[in-house]
């Protein structure tokens, strides 16, 4: 985009799982670029393929029964088909990952200090004392109070928020250039979610890392990302800079996601807007638009022809819809559907 | 459980403890009242557990100290006390608390020396199973795929052969035949190898199962994502978590091995007949069951209490391990 080579270039990546029921198209043709110092949010509901996408980039998927297509370039080097052995030199030092549940991402029988120094000692040729010092300063930088004492404690002695900070400290230990955070706040109390996100943001700025923030919460993405990728059923359905996405969203799915966030200004007992239905079966995805079955704007064409990713007015804005939100066609489609729903006797 | 404000129980508690600072834990326990919290119960070892620890300390302590204790020679016959029961009244030589066996050998001395033999044989045997079975189980459970197939088949094959028959065959093949010179091993060593080999599949299976589930945990993936090598993950991440399960089974394994030594002794495949070992003492004392039952019952009781204690301790270890799990 803004000249120079992106740190991470993902082109047409697909990840399929070979199951008894057939090929599951968990990720299907995803492309994006991510530069140093930028944050990309990947948003979608459960099963939309966002976690699989993150793990595909890390190369952390099992090799058995997994089909990987497309190209992933990290610092210009192709790693799309790299084996774990080849990936090991990237893990920890070039790219690192923060997992969803800090309750299970830390070893219950290992002290916090050890868990951090472990990876320092793996990658860096430093003395034990120095590794310890480094670990303490890492804990300090992720705002763990009293880090010296925490070093000697076990995970079960820490709260969820503190554990997630420790996980972030572990991930940052060897100075990765790309940090993948897979739903880092989903398992946390609402009260500490913002704190953990602040820590991530601060560290990303300080270290000029690229951050890939996977979440199902548009609210998380709103204030903290430069660009957002909305995923549905394994595909990118809308891609835009964060500001554009929220001011000028084109994809009905994005709109529906945003509407499903409860608003404080509404009177109490307002019915929450939910997206009806469930995501499609990824073994046998529908031939038309994958969101068609749940879409408020749906027309006949949506069921027959899959919309391509097409550019919006703002550069870098792309979406996958025949009847986009905020356009005359979209308004017309919506009006038509509402009229049909209001007429009794018509097909449901 | 959150108590509503103004809950009568809580106000009662605060009434009772007015003036003294109470922490939340105390209030909760008071509020729960009759039901002791699971956590509290687990933290403290029960009476039975302490009794087991005391018994094992006594038995192991005596076994270790046997050479320095003022005991009679366990092989020397004292004709006076032959077949005399414990605390025998008239005629028994003083100083032979538990009586003598059919040859007039001091039972107390033989029980202590026998415990030494039995415990050494069984512990070392299980240690062999612990190390070899542990390695196999860790490799199979962690790497899965082909490695696991090989490991599982190996363990299953061993498990399918009746353990006593396998051990019997091994002892018979390995040890020096009575009357012949050289060629074989000491009966003690043969017994250790046989029982060790038999315990490999048991420990291997448990380790494999436990490793399978621990390897699935996210922290293993997290360690991998930090670039840790397989060896390091197995050694540092998986093994410490699998160890409690292995320890628990190893304690049971020692108990089973003690019983197995007895079984083999009756089949004539234990240590040599005059060497004291609990199972062996029962085996050679069999003909005197009616006339001098103490010759059999004393070692049998030793086996009984020791096996019981080891089983208890195995449970204690497992309970501790559960605390770790719930602490997650």
SSE layout and pairing:
The complex is a heterodimer of chains A (348) and B (328).
Chain A: E1 8-19, E2 22-34, E3 39-43, H1 50-58, E4 66-74, E5 77-78, H2 84-87, E6 95-98, H3 112-123, H4 128-141, H5 147-151, H6 160-172, E7 178-182, H7 190-207, E8 210-215, H8 218-224, E9 227-232, E10 235-241, H9 242-247, H10 252-259, H11 300-304, E11 310-311, E12 318-319, H12 328-342
Parallel strand pairs in A: 3-8, 3-9, 6-7, 7-8
Antiparallel strand pairs in A: 1-2, 1-4, 4-5, 9-10, 10-12, 11-12
Helix pairs in contact in A: 3-4, 3-6, 4-6, 6-7
Chain B: H1 8-16, H2 24-32, H3 38-43, H4 47-65, H5 107-143, H6 145-160, H7 163-174, H8 187-215, H9 218-225, H10 230-266, H11 278-285, H12 294-326
Helix pairs in contact in B: 4-5, 4-12, 5-6, 5-8, 5-10, 6-8, 7-8, 8-10, 9-10, 10-11, 10-12, 11-12
Description:
The complex is a heterodimer of chains A (348) and B (328). Chain A is of the alpha/beta class. Chain A is 33% helix and 21% strand. Chain A is built from twelve helices and twelve strands. Chain A has helices at 50-58, 84-87, 112-123, 128-141, 147-151, 160-172, 190-207, 218-224, 242-247, 252-259, 300-304, 328-342; strands spanning 8-19, 22-34, 39-43, 66-74, 77-78, 95-98, 178-182, 210-215, 227-232, 235-241, 310-311, 318-319. In chain A, α3 (112-123) packs parallel to α6 and α4 crosses α6 (160-172). The longest helix of chain A has 18 residues, at 190-207. Chain A is globular, with a radius of gyration of 22 Å. The mean pLDDT of chain A is 90. Chain B has helices spanning 8-16, 24-32, 38-43, 47-65, 107-143, 145-160, 163-174, 187-215, 218-225, 230-266, 278-285, 294-326. Chain B has twelve helices and no strands. In chain B, α4 packs across α12 and α5 (107-143) runs parallel beside α8. With 328 residues, chain B is mostly helical. The A-B interface holds A 58, 60, 64, 84, 88-93, 96-97, 99-101, 103-110, 118-119, 122-123, 154-156, 167, 170-171, 173-174 and B 145, 217-219, 221-229, 232, 236-237, 240-241, 324-325, 327-328.
């Amino acid at each position: 985009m803004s000249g120079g080579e992106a740190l991470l270039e993902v082109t047409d990546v697909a990840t399929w799982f070979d199951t008894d029921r057939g090929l599951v198209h968990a990720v299907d043709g995803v492309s994006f670029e991510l530069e140093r110092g930028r944050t990309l949010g990947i948003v979608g509901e459960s099963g939309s393929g966002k976690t699989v996408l993150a793990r595909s980039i890390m190369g952390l998927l099992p090799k058995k029964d997994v089909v990987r297509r497309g190209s992933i370039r990290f610092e210009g080097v192709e790693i799309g088909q790299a084996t774990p052995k080849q990936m090991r030199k990237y893990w920890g030092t070039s790219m690192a990952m923060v997992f969803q549940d800090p309750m299970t991402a830390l070893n219950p029988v290992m002290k916090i200090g050890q868990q951090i120094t472990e990876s320092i000692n793996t990658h860096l040729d430093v003395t034990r004392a120095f590794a310890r010092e480094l670990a303490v300063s890492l804990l300090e930088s992720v705002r763990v109070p009293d880090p010296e004492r925490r070093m000697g404690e076990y995970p079960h002695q820490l709260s969820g928020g503190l554990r997630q900070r420790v996980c972030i400290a572990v991930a940052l230990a060897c100075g990765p250039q790309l940090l993948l955070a897979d739903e880092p706040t989903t398992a946390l109390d609402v009260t500490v979610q913002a704190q953990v996100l602040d820590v991530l943001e601060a560290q990303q700025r300080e270290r000029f890392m690229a951050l890939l923030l996977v979440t199902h919460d548009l609210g998380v993405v709103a204030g903290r990302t430069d660009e957002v990728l909305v995923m549905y059923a394994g595909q990118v359905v809308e891609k835009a800079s964060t500001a554009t996405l929220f001011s000028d969203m084109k994809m009905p799915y994005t709109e529906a996601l945003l509407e499903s966030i409860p608003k404080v200004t509404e009177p109490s007992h307002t019915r929450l807007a939910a997206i009806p239905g469930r995501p499609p079966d990824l073994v046998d995805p529908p031939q038309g638009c994958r969101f068609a079955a749940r879409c408020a704007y749906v027309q006949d064409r949506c069921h027959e022809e899959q919309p391509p990713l097409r550019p919006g007015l703002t550069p870098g804005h792309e979406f996958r819809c025949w009847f986009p939100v905020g356009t005359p066609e979209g308004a017309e489609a919506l009006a038509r559907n509402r009229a049909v729903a209001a007429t009794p006797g018509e097909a449901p | 459980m959150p108590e509503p404000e103004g809950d009568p129980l809580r106000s009662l508690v605060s009434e009772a403890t007015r003036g003294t600072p109470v922490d939340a834990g105390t209030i909760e326990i008071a509020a729960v009242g009759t039901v002791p919290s699971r956590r509290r119960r687990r933290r403290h070892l029960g009476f039975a557990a302490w009794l087991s620890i005391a018994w094992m300390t006594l038995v192991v302590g005596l076994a270790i100290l046997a050479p320095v204790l003022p005991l009679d020679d366990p092989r020397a016959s004292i004709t006076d006390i032959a077949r005399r029961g414990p605390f025998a009244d008239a005629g028994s030589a003083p100083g032979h608390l538990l009586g003598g066996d059919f040859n007039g050998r001091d039972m107390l001395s033989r029980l202590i020396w026998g415990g030494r033999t039995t415990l050494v044989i069984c512990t070392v045997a299980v240690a062999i199973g612990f190390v070899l079975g542990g390695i196999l189980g860790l490799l199979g459970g962690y790497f899965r795929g082909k490695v696991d197939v090989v490991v599982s088949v190996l363990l299953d094959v061993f498990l399918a052969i009746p353990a006593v028959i396998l051990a019997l065959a091994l002892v018979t093949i390995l040890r020096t035949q009575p009357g012949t010179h050289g060629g074989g091993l000491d009966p003690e060593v043969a017994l250790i190898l046989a029982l060790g080999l038999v315990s490999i599949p048991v420990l291997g299976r448990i380790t494999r199962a436990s490793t399978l589930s621990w390897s699935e945990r996210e922290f293993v993936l997290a360690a991998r994502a930090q670039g840790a090598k397989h060896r390091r993950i197995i050694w540092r991440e998986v093994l410490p978590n699998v160890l409690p399960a292995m320890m628990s089974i190893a304690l049971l394994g020692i108990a089973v091995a003690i019983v197995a030594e007895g079984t083999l002794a009756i089949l004539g495949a234990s240590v040599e007949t005059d060497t004291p070992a609990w199972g062996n003492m029962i085996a050679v004392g069999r003909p005197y069951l009616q006339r001098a039952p103490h010759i059999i019952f004393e070692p049998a009781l030793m086996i009984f209490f020791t096996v019981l204690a080891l089983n208890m301790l195995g449970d204690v270890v497992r309970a501790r391990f559960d605390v770790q799990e719930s602490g997650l």
